[in-house]
Specification:
The protein is an alpha+beta fold. The chain is 21% helix and 40% strand.
Length: 146
């Protein structure tokens, strides 16, 4: 006895349903994100706490385009903290500034910058900071990390 079109449709629906309930298809993911190299941190109060090795690490990481991070917290004369978190990426540097300076803009600001330069800190010959340019997202095209 020949099968009716309704039975063929039901059999097809069951086979599709069975295939859908079997193991899920493998989804190719993008390349794994490499872990960030930890360059270190510093907390600078009245000139004390500068970490030259950590700064040199993030500078070399930027030059080599090696995913890395560095955090510096600097205190204003009044004692208010301003934290800069730098993360080197394949395309530049992301800087997150967390300002609690009561005499300046307060809040958290995220900047994506293409360029990082090493600059001498004012009044010193052996300490350096960073100048960032071609920035977007944080309200400034240029910024400095003292």
């Amino acid at each position: 006895m020949p099968r009716s079109p309704g039975r063929r449709l039901a059999a097809l629906a069951l086979s599709v349903l069975a295939a859908a309930c079997s193991s899920p298809p493998k989804v190719q993911s993008g390349p794994a994100t490499p872990p960030l190299k930890q360059c270190g941190t510093e907390v600078v109060r009245r000139g004390d706490g500068y970490n030259g090795a950590a700064r040199e690490c993030i500078w070399q990481a930027y030059r080599n385009r090696e995913p890395s991070e560095f955090t510096t917290t600097r205190y204003t004369i009044e004692g208010d903290p301003v934290t800069y978190h730098l993360e080197v990426t394949a395309t530049g540097v992301v800087v997150v500034v967390d300002s609690k300076d009561r005499y300046a803009m307060q809040g958290v600001f995220r900047h994506a910058c293409r360029n990082l330069e090493r600059i001498t800190q004012e009044g010193t010959e052996d300490r350096f900071g960073f100048a960032l340019s071609a920035c977007s997202g944080g309200g400034a095209e240029r910024l400095a990390v003292p």
